[in-house]
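user: can you give me the structure for this one chain? tokens are fine.
assistant: on it. calling the predictor now.
[tool input]
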Amino acid sequence: MLNLKKFLSRSLLAVALGACAGVFAAPVYHVTIDTSTLGNSSAVLDLELGALTGNAAPVTATLNHFMGAYGASDFSGSASGAIGSSVRLVNDAGYSGLLQSIILGGLFSFDLSFDVGTGGLDGSSFTAMLYNADSSATLGMDTPLVQIDLMPGQADVVAPANAFASATAVPEPSTLLSMVTGLACWASVCVAAHADPASPREKAACPGRGRRLF
């Protein structure tokens, strides 16, 4: 009976560790662009995903949950989708992009995630820039409002440090569920450990072992 309880405790600990592993998955970015100080005319939001070299790892960017006064969309390269559902940018041809017409004067936002594959040594870059209606001049800044550099095996480099945009990493609902599940399983392991003797390894997993819970 004691061996069975030890087995169950260790199994629950393994489940907890596996569930919590999802917490470290690739982040989802909530991107916000503030045009409230740029007037109320038409403009173009240029969203691009480009490979830095011909030996870049394959990358797919998924954009969804668009909010704001959007107009017509013009896709290039391998870009596809729709603002009302989701947009997909792929670096398979070196570059893909979306020229999205907007009406200035308010906030624009969307969620952005990346799927970085294997098979390449170099990285890619996602950028968001703002132009006037005929794309002849930049608005707000001459450089990207948002830039996220993606290198295989490395953390993303996010550069939204300006007055017009922000890109904040947020956990996905599935990640939050994994975290809660992992913590619940870990708590079960600790409760079981308080009830039965165990090896030093199990004691180390539950630092409160040996003391009354209440």
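assistant: here you go. Confidence is low (pLDDT under 50) at residues 4-9, 11-24, 174-187, 189-195. Helices lie at 2-20, 173-195, 200-205.
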